Each structure stands twice: as structure tokens, then as C-alpha cells.
């Protein structure tokens, strides 16, 4: 399927190859300039997914005349609980093919489908931001929230609807303080408690340390404190002129302090100062708490048409917490002591995709 050395192939045709160690720089150079590429298309995710999560990766790229013309990161997830799948990309909100021309996109899509058939997975999932596979089943569960931000802080504050702007001002009046460049230890204590309270397993501390070590300044932790005590934290990713607050949450008492509103406002200010011009609030499931929170900030939902090539599966998977069959598990998880949820969480979370 993947041709590396076909001497009979014309120079101007598209060849599909697997990412090798010495290809990573070329891969990232393409991603950096491709309009549809995202932070989650960067080559470094391959080692993170394989080494920290234990999933085998199949990173494919298209090449013509020695130049990369398209990329497709794929990871194979094997789970006794959640099945066998090929995803672009697990634990990332975006993925799918990024290509500079129609032939490269088509070749990469065909190669991914052929690989899914060869591996006999349940399904291939491409996490596209736009509808690219109208003839494939599409999941209509997630939306993203993305909006330009102004270089002027005051204009950004005024762009937040009145009620939510009042929450930002409440956090300011209560003396909340934001520190950028925080440590994973500071972040993890808060984030682990936050997701436990939502009934969601947390990934390992080592995973978040690996993200910070790998991406450096492009991965920044913001910690919000009240009277010297951390109450909220978020890990944000920077890519080109975008900021993406990705892993974030607050402790229980952070709600009464408006800690989340203050935190995201602080990230927005920080992003502007770093030169960002687009704020990506990430994905949410329709009609959930986070969905309404982001709408109240003045962001409009944009559908995420994740597309599926079904192999052994007969229908699009539903591993969402909104699935009624997970309700009892979520309630039980919310009652776990925090050390127990931190110990058990990584084993489950890494397979959720």
C-alpha cells in the first residue's frame, strides 16, 4: 500500500509514505504553512501517543517530486472496553487529511481506508473541521468555538456578552490572580479534581509533563489563585496566530469565585500579548454545560463533522459521556476519592480517544 521506492513511478505523481524520524522536520514545515493544519497535526504527537498512551501510530504523508503535499496522522487504538479503531487523532479535537491539492487528499484518504481494512478495525475516524467526506457516515455530536480576538484588551472585554462580562469583573473584584508559565504539578492537582467532579477519568501526570516538555513555549499553563490558593488552571496550546485553551478546570469553590471566567479572560489577554489573533475555545458536545458556557461568551458553535469509514462496526460509535449507558459509571466515578481516581484514571482515559 505505501510505496517508498517505486523507480517506475513518474516524478509528478503522488506517492504515499510513512513518516520516518528524518521526515519530521519536513512534515512540520508543511503543517506550519498549510492553511487547514492544526496544532494537532504536528509530528511530535506521534511519539507522545505511542510512548505515553501506548497506541501504535501510522503517520502517512503524500509526496510529489520530493516535496510533501499532504499529511494524515493516524493512531490505532486497541481497547478491551471500547474496541479497536483507527483515529486521526485520538485525544485531539482536530485531525484528518491536510493536503495542498485534491489528488494528495484523495490518495491519503484511500490509503487510510485501505489501512483500516487491513488492520480490521471497527472503524476509521477522521476528525475534520469541515465536511470532506459527504458519502461517509458523519457524527453530529461535537461543535467547535473559534473567534478572532482584537489587539485591544478593552475591545475584547466589551465583546463578551454583558452577563458573562460581569462574571469576569466579579473574579477581578474578588482579587483573583493569574500566573502564566505554571508547572504541571500546580495544574494537575486542580485539573484532576475538576474532571473527577465531572465523572471523567484523568490522564497521567506524566502525559501532561510530556506535552510541556515537547512543545515548550507553545504549551503554557495558567494558574488562577485566590488569597494564595490555586483554584483554577488551564493548559493552552499556541499554533501560528491561534491560542487553544485545551485542558482546563477549577476546584469546587472556584465556581463561587467566577474562577473559570476570570481564567479564560486572563488567557485571552496573555494570548493577545503573545501576538495571537484567534481564540479557539475547543470542542463541546451539543447542549452540555461547556457548550452553553462558551455560547454565553459570545462564541458561535461551528459543527465538527467527524467522518467514519466503517469496517467491522455497523454504526458510528458513541463513546460520549452523554451516552445513557455510561450514566451509572459517571456517577460512581464522581464519588471516588481523588487519589483513587488519579490512580485508575489513566488506564481508562488513554483508550477513550
TrEMBL record:
Q: Which SUPFAM superfamilies match?
A: Acyl-CoA N-acyltransferases (Nat)
Q: Hey, which family's this protein in?
A: Belongs to the FemABX family.
Query: Entry's Pfam families?
Result: Acetyltransf_6
Task: Enumerate the PROSITE patterns for this protein.
Answer: FEMABX
PANTHER family in UniProt: LIPID II:GLYCINE GLYCYLTRANSFERASE
Protein name, entry field: FemAB family PEP-CTERM system-associated protein
Alphabetically ordered keywords of this record: Acyltransferase, Cell shape, Cell wall biogenesis/degradation, Peptidoglycan synthesis, Transferase
The secretion signal range is: none
Domain of life where this protein originates? Bacteria
InterPro entries assigned:
Acyl_CoA_acyltransferase, BioF2-like_GNAT_dom, FEMABX, PEP-CTERM_FemAB-rel, PG_Glycine_Bridge_Synth
Q: Which residues form the BioF2-like acetyltransferase domain?
A: 160-295
Amino acid at each position: 500500500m505505501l510505496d517508498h521506492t517505486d523507480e517506475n513511478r513518474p516524478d509528478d505523481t503522488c506517492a504515499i509514505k510513512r513518516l520516518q524520524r528524518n521526515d519530521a522536520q519536513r512534515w512540520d514545515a508543511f503543517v506550519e504553512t498549510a492553511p487547514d493544519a492544526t496544532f494537532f497535526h504536528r509530528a511530535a504527537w506521534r511519539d507522545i501517543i505511542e510512548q505515553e498512551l501506548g497506541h501504535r501510530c501510522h503517520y502517512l504523508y503524500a509526496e510529489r517530486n520530493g516535496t510533501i503535499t499532504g499529511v494524515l496522522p493516524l493512531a490505532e487504538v486497541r481497547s478491551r472496553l471500547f474496541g479497536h479503531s483507527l483515529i486521526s487523532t485520538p485525544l485531539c479535537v482536530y485531525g484528518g487529511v491536510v493536503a495542498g491539492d485534491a489528488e494528495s487528499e484523495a490518495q491519503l484518504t484511500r490509503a487510510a481506508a485501505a489501512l483500516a481494512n487491513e488492520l480490521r478495525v471497527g472503524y476509521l475516524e477522521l476528525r475534520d473541521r469541515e465536511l470532506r467526506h459527504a458519502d461517509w457516515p458523519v457524527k453530529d455530536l461535537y461543535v467547535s468555538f473559534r473567534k478572532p480576538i482584537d489587539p485591544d484588551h478593552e475591545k475584547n472585554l466589551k465583546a463578551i456578552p454583558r452577563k458573562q462580562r460581569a462574571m469576569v469583573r466579579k473574579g477581578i473584584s474578588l482579587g483573583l490572580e493569574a500566573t502564566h508559565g505554571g508547572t504541571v504539578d500546580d495544574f494537575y492537582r486542580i485539573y484532576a479534581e475538576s474532571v473527577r467532579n465531572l465523572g471523567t477519568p484523568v490522564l497521567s501526570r506524566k502525559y501532561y509533563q510530556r506535552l510541556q516538555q515537547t512543545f515548550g513555549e507553545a504549551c503554557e499553563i495558567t494558574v488562577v489563585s485566590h488569597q494564595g490558593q490555586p483554584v483554577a488552571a488551564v493548559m493552552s496550546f499556541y499554533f501560528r496566530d491561534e491560542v487553544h485553551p485545551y485542558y482546563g478546570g477549577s476546584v469546587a469553590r472556584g465556581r463561587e469565585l467566577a474562577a473559570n471566567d476570570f481564567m479564560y479572560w486572563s488567557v485571552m489577554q496573555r494570548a493577545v500579548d503573545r501576538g495571537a489573533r484567534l481564540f479557539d475555545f475547543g470542542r463541546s458536545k451539543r447542549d452540555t454545560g461547556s457548550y452553553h458556557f462558551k455560547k454565553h461568551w459570545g462564541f458561535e458553535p461551528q459543527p465538527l463533522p467527524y467522518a467514519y469509514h466503517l469496517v467491522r462496526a455497523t454504526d458510528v460509535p458513541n463513546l460520549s459521556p452523554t451516552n445513557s449507558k455510561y450514566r451509572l459509571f459517571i456517577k460512581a466515578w464522581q464519588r471516588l476519592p481523588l487519589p483513587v481516581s488519579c490512580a485508575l484514571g489513566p488506564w481508562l482515559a488513554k483508550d477513550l480517544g
